[in-house]
Amino acid sequence: MKNKICLICHTAINMNKEFCKFEHYKKENVINSKAYYHVECFRKRLSGSAIQEKLAKQGFDLIKLAKEKMGIEDKQEVVMA
């Protein structure tokens, strides 16, 4: 059996462990393509990378600081999960 390769990290997937299979359908019952991913790679891709999360936090902090300097009260708090 040919090894399945994760399309995010490009390493082999152990089919005896948890993995994700993505099927792209052209129309009902006609599969256009199939892709395989490690669960952790897929989870990270969906939630955003650490760099994106860091940049988002810095952006929110910068906006908050700018509002404070201009005397604008920020009533809505943004929570990064």
The number of domains is 1
Radius of gyration, in Å, reads: 20 Å
Distance between the termini: 40 Å
State the oligomer.
single chain
For the largest beta sheet, what order do the strands appear in spatially? 1-2
- Extract low-pLDDT stretches: none
Number of strands: 4
Task: Describe the overall structure.
This protein has 81 residues and is an alpha+beta fold. The chain has one domain. It is built from two helices and four strands. The protein has helices spanning 39-47, 50-70, and strands at residues 4-5, 12-13, 19-27, 30-38. The protein has a two-stranded antiparallel ribbon. A two-stranded antiparallel sheet has the order 3-4. The chain is elongated. The mean pLDDT is 88.
Short description:
By secondary structure, this protein is of the alpha+beta class. It has helices at 39-47, 50-70; strands at residues 4-5, 12-13, 19-27, 30-38. The protein has one domain (4-70).
